[in-house]
Amino acid sequence: MADPSIISNARFTYVHDHHKHTVDTHHIIARRSTLKPIVLYLIAILLVAYSVFLHLDKGKPVTTVIWSFFFAAIFVKLLIWRPIVKESVVIMPEFGVQLETHYGSGRINRRFIPVSKILKPVLNECVTPVTCCWCLSFLIRDENELTLVFKKFRPPLKMLVPIWKALCVATDCKESFEIQEDG
């Protein structure tokens, strides 16, 4: 395995592993927040204190039980639910591209797209009234819609360009590697 190249920012880390002539792997890894667990535990303590207050002050055990179950369900969802940890693109030049989504629970969703079905990798700028982001997608033969490479993550352009270039090389895209800007 050759040296991995790494690009980081506040939200994501990009890791590129290139194996000689076989597999080209690109990972986008989400950074974990250190503040989120602290805030969740503080809110849990406040909600337990509020439930105790309701029980002692009002003396209505039914209300206390209902509130306790409601807040317990919310916290179980927040503390146990595991978001996406990383999304990977595994490029096998002779075979195709495998898109992987890794969850915090250990589950991995994989989707394989054969090279023969990929018409072209496309780097799009998505503009909304509130935000602007870049997304990497495929034009797939016999499909009406673009296939997104990263389903949940929206990494910055500096992380998407090396993946796009590797996909262009793997799919024998005859386009130049320069990004064209309108204007």
Number of separate strands: 9
- Reading the helices and strands in chain order gives EEEHHEEEEEEH
Estimate the global geometry from the Cα principal axes.
Answer: elongated
Measure the end-to-end span: 42 Å
Proportion of β residues?
25-35%
Please characterize this protein's 3D structure.
The chain starts with a strand and ends in a 13-residue tail after the last helix. It has 183 residues and is an alpha+beta fold. A hairpin with a 5-residue loop joins strand 2 and strand 3 (24-30). The strands form two sheets. The protein has a six-stranded antiparallel β-sheet, covered by helices on one side. Strands 7-8-9 form a three-stranded antiparallel β-sheet, covered by helices on one side. The longest helix has 24 residues, at 35-58. It is built from three helices and nine strands; from the N terminus they run βββααββββββα. The protein is elongated, with a radius of gyration of 23 Å.
Task: Itemize the secondary structure elements and their pairings.
Blueprint: E1 5-8, E2 12-18, E3 24-30, H1 35-58, H2 61-80, E4 84-92, E5 96-103, E6 108-114, E7 118-127, E8 132-140, E9 147-148, H3 157-170
Antiparallel strand pairs: 1-2, 2-3, 3-4, 4-5, 5-6, 7-8, 8-9
